[in-house]
Amino acid sequence: ASVITNPKAKSLTYNGNSQDLITEGSASNGVMYYSLTNEGPYSTSVPQGTNARTYTVFYYAKGNTGYKDSPKRQLDVTIAKASSLKTAPTVASPVIIHDGSNHDLINAGTTNSGTIEYGVNFNNSSKNNPPSLWSSNIPQGKDSGTYYIWYRIENGVNSTNYEEVNPTYLASVTITESTLPTNNCYIGFGQNLTFTESDLNK
Asked: What SS3 class is residue 74?
């Protein structure tokens, strides 16, 4: 027997389910057999994988009556890690009119694994550099100025099957029609975290 068409690796990403690792090959004067180990057991069923990693599929053509088996061959197949980000956060409004109240700057994102954290750079802080302070609470703004909003997913991620999200710049939000206080600027994450202007410009 001989292998006429070699099986081909599928392009796969982790989804929590068992997935076929290959498209089947074909044989002449025999039947294709597969295994995830060289020693077997071998089966005509297409091998499957669940977790994100590289699998080695071993295969050969098992000869019909009167035909010898073909030599064994092997093929590497990778199930890639999925993103830990399910839906990205969005800006609640790019421009907010100052009224002395605290305003949520974004709508929360969601994750497949781990926790989204948010950070804010204020006014002259560069939007090209991630902030130094992070919180899982929704960032809020009160004082006039431009808020450069970032997010990341690094805490609690199942690293076996999901990729972390490095600090990522989202967008800016401007609160207008007010003079920036000279000493302090309030940005709160819920009621749990408060920054001073000196913190934000570090």
From this structure: strand
Mean pLDDT of 144-151: 95
Q: What is the pLDDT of residues 126-138, one digit of tens each?
A: 678 899 999 999 9
CA dihedral 57, 74, 158, 12 (to 10 degrees): -80
Amino acid at 185: C
Residue whose pair of structure tokens reads 């709508």 in the numeric block: 107
pLDDT higher than 70, residue 151: yes
Closest by Cα among 88, 81, 90, 19 to 50: 19
Which residue in 58, 61, 7 sits closest to 30, CA to CA? 61
């180990």: which residue's tokens?
A: 37
At 133, list the tokens: 């302070």
Residues in Cβ contact with 50 at an 8 Å cutoff, skipping those fewer than 6 apart: 14, 16, 17, 18, 19, 79
- Residue type at position 163: E
pLDDT confidence bin for 149, thresholds 50/70/90: very high
Pairing outcome for strands 73-80 and 82-83: unpaired
